[in-house]
Amino acid sequence: MSDVILVVEDDAAILSGLIDLLEGEGFKVWSARDGRKALSVYREKSPDLILLDIMIPEISGYDVCKHVRLTDGRTPIIMLTAKSEEIDKVVGLEIGADDYVVKPFSVKELLARVRAALRRATAGPAEAKKRKWDDTPIEFGDVTIDPRTLEGRKGKTEFSMTLREVQLMQFFAGHDGEVLDRSLILDEVWGLKYEGTTRTLDQHVARLRAKIEKDASNPEHIFTIHGIGYRFTSG
User: Are residues 107 and 218 in the same domain?
Assistant: First the structure.
């Protein structure tokens, strides 16, 4: 049975091209050209993956993603954006998108991201059984993160966390002081030999630093090890 993909894109030419590409690869495709229609199709068709443009009419791609994530934390969402500003990517990841692709993108890159996201989603339940969810609070310095509530505190400042950010922090905390390769982090936190670029990881780390560091540009806990990855230290 073919995987079902919902493509949300307001540019008719791009939408047509994406539909032809995905159908040519054996996927079943539903489409929408605005956010309101996208949510309607999503509720009716329950797609296996959503390919979601950010700048769409009626309801923005950001808000579509938020609506989906209110009740559905499993369906992969890949954001499409023509913008290069880092804030757009960060916001997309913060509200629950799994990945993003910047236009113009190559066919090979897009298909690799789609297939990787679908494999991760399929393996999700099996991986969850292998890994027990640890709800033990993460504590270091003046920071406390509660996996049960997806909330954290640094001193007197409270902040919210996404599920992926908590998983990333749990992995870091479990390897305190170790130099961790980017590929290893992606495999362990995102799963299934992640085929996207490391930009997704770097954006998540940037978000974490903004929350847990006194000065994100001069971190005391999450250090970049150039050419390799990251090292977390609780001290």
Answer: no
Q: Are 194 and 187 in contact (CB under 8 A)?
A: yes
The C-alpha atoms of residue 207 and residue 97 are separated, in whole angstroms, by 14
Token representation of residue 182: 């980017």
Highest mean pLDDT among 9-18, 70-79, 120-129: 9-18
Query: Does the model's pTM come out above 0.85?
Result: no
Distance CA 88, CA 84 (A): 8
Q: 161: closest CA among 207, 124, 202, 99?
A: 207
Structural domain span for residue 184: 138-232
Structural domain ending residue among the three candidates 105, 129, 153: 129
Both tokens assigned to 112: 């690799």
Q: Please compute the mean of the pLDDT values over residues 26-39 and round it to a whole number.
A: 95
